[in-house]
Amino acid sequence: MMQIALKKLRAPFLAAALLASVAFGSLVVTPFRLGQAQAQSAVRALPDFTDLVEQVGPSVVNIRTMEKVRTGGAGGGGTDEEMQEFLKRFFGQPMPNIPGVPRQGPRQNRPQQEEEQPRGVGSGFILTSDGFIMTNAHVVDGADEMLVTLTDKREFKAKLIGADKRTDVAVVKIEATGLPAVKTGDVSRLKVGEWVMAIGSPFGLDNTVTAGIVSAKQRDTGDYLSFIQTDVAINPGNSGGPLINMRGEVVGINSQIYSRTGSFAGISFSIPMDEALRVSEQLRSGGRVVRGRIGVQIGPVTKDVAESIGLGKAQGALVGGVESGSPADKAGIEAGDIITRFEGKVIEKSSDLPRMVGATKPGTRASLTIFRRGSNKEVTITIGEFEAEKLAGKKLEKEDKPRASAAAQSLGLTVSDLTEVMKKELKLKGGVKVDSATEAAARAGLRDGDVILSIANTEVNNVKEFDAVISKVDKSKAVNLLVRRGEWAQYALIRPVK
Q1: What is the pLDDT of residue 40?
Q2: CA distances in angstroms from 290 to 141, 145, 222, listed in the order given
Q3: What's domain 292-385's architecture?
Q4: How far apart are CA 184 and CA 244, in angstroms?
Q5: Cα 355 to chain centroid, rounded
Q6: Nearest to 63 by CA among 144, 3, 150
Q7: pTM flag (> 0.90)
Q8: For 406-494, which CATH class?
Q9: In terms of Cα–Cα distance, which of 442, 473, 437, 471 is closest to 457?
């Protein structure tokens, strides 16, 4: 048995030591030394970040933001004056002088003052040697003044060049030259499991270094870009700092964390550097980012919905609403359509569409493939320019008493015809309004005020048409409904009780 154990270790020189240990009754000593050797080997295999810190550290900056706050003036001392008025009215005497408590003068004699107060702390990194610095848009949002501190303790006032809230990228400029700029890396070469490092100012602690691995790539958490997910410790103040690979290249901007408490929970997200550079180029050249838009609200296509409407594979972007007068409206796109291709490229998931459209120059004519009521259709659309988001639409107004439908009640629904005012408000030609949803309909997520536009892939304009379709539907199978809620349209599946 002893010979077999030694063969597995593949270390003949240990045999003599082990036998000697047995002879002197100290068998436990050799395994302990073997453990030490294994531990030392493992330590040597771990990455060493010291050279990276020396290389990239001087390019990382601390960004402190300030805001101007008005103090004093008409708003100051209100409590004291109100108490004096109260005492005069009800006790016929002014507020007595209390030793040690200052008395405030009349409001009109206290002019307002404007003071600068700290607003927040973030991080950034030097993009070019002549002073362009990249950070997060949320770091500089709302700031009246920005102070950039370098690792050599020099401090500069920074000017905002541009910020893009949709990607959370911002560029600021300081008046300096000969600065140590970062090297940017190729994000496509980044691999899951690869070691990465972050440098920033968490909780205001300048030049803090943390490290971890890439947990996932192309993680969808935003509309216009997918993120790099890591387990690198990121906390408030790290925002805007660089994510660095083992070659000393910046591959991302640390932007968000997933947390239920506000503290780091092992999941952090970084903006891919290739996307950030595209945004920064537009910010530096024009101060803003120009994006294409078509004017639709979209949602995901689930497997159940895809199968129920005959699409098959769960892919594409479900059109939940179409903005009036938008490029999509002019091209004839309707709520309930599923956009499956843009310029011939397959839309695997709904978040692909805004990225494809956003990257297209406004004014470009593009082709869309849409799936509508069981068949594909080609549509040509002229890309518009992205504007500010519009407010949510108005709620449905109740004008008439509900009109019950026996056929609808079999699905747990009570529906009524839309009034002309409702049609005008919602820009609809027809549909039926849900007055109550119980049992199967409630389980499917329907609720009062929803508008049903189609059932079982058949468009319905009123209760009469709705009843006619329901009477032909197989109640033993799931029934799909296209439902409008506010400005959004989505599919719902009413399943039979088993």
Answers
A1: 55
A2: 19, 26, 18
A3: Roll (2.30)
A4: 9
A5: 14
A6: 150
A7: no
A8: mainly beta
A9: 473
